[in-house]
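Memo subject: From amino acid sequence to discrete backbone structure tokens
Action wanted: Derive the backbone structure tokens from the amino acid sequence.
How to read it: Take the token row as a discrete description of the fold.
Attached in line: The record itself begins immediately under this heading.
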Amino acid sequence: MSQQPPLSSCRDQMIRRAVTLRTSPAEAAAELHAGLVQAETALVVLFCSPQIAEDTLAEDIAERFAGVPVIGCTTAGEITPFGYRHGSITGVSFAAPDFHAVTRPIADVRGFSVADGRDLVQSCLAELDATERDWPLGQVFAMLLIDGLTTCEESVVSALHRELGPIPLFGGSAGDELTFGATKVLHGGKFHPHSAVLVLVATDHPFRVFKTEHFVSSQEKMVITEADPVRRIVTEINAEPAAQEYARMVGLSIDKLTPMIFANYPVVVRVGNMPYVRSIQKVNEDASLTFFCAIDEGIVLTVAKGLDIAEDLQRLFDELAADIGPPELVIGCDCILRNLEIRQKGLEGRISALMTTNNVVGFNTYGEQFHAMHVNQTFTGVAIGRRN
């Protein structure tokens, strides 16, 4: 008997969603293909548990979808048509003529430059322009899937965004179930470390790229007085050992600092008028703190106060429905720290139901991208409505 729930697809067969719990690469590939294949498939996107992210799986899927770009990444948890899962592969496919996709891999993000960003985006736009159909830029969105441990998201997303112009960008950093060993991106029939893939999707369906977080800044300020920005390590806050000062500000001792505490007490920086969460990854042996996002000396942070995460998500989905109608699909990049909080508060069933109702497929990330920014502890993505 199959281990997986029934495969699911949208009413509009230009978009199909699927999930498999099979651990055999051949069986997983077969079930995903059965759930996602459709006439004129234009793009397949997969979010894969690191436990089953093997090249044999990637090669099998690429062979089954011959001629179709298949992209994806490893996860810290999956958002499937049936809610949150761990140890699964979930994905979505898009079909012509409603959708047209152009993909470009970045083989190694560690040396990615502004010039590389210009060349990559211009190549994508040239391919889009060469299609038989005229796609205005207002009908195009961009998604970036990127290695979550190479600490290159800021430079890559900044280089891409400056060339994309009015095309909205979102994305997620690949995860590995909080192992912090190796995260991989799927393209070209293999899972690649230190890699990324950019996709431009043109569609005549209404869509909206979004970001939400359920925190507001408090009045408790902290100044980073010593840091190693390249490694995202903060050694001093307010001229005190970083972990010690952070623990003091949240009313705990250093030995009590865990991923759950970081999820409940993130720190926020304001850029312009917008708050952006800068989440802490771990405490190091020397009482320094490693962050998921870029951090530098002189930055003023505030400890954030959490709001109701379920109410915030319901508000978001209500706004999306009012804007584009009930979504046919939401591709969601949901920070792993949000998932830890959801589990700790016993909200996994409630949030899974919200995700299912709103047709969300995606993954728990090590960071999220939104326009020109690499952010943390947010839910970002694109909502796609029914074509009028």
About this structure: Residues 1-12 have pLDDT under 50 and may be disordered.
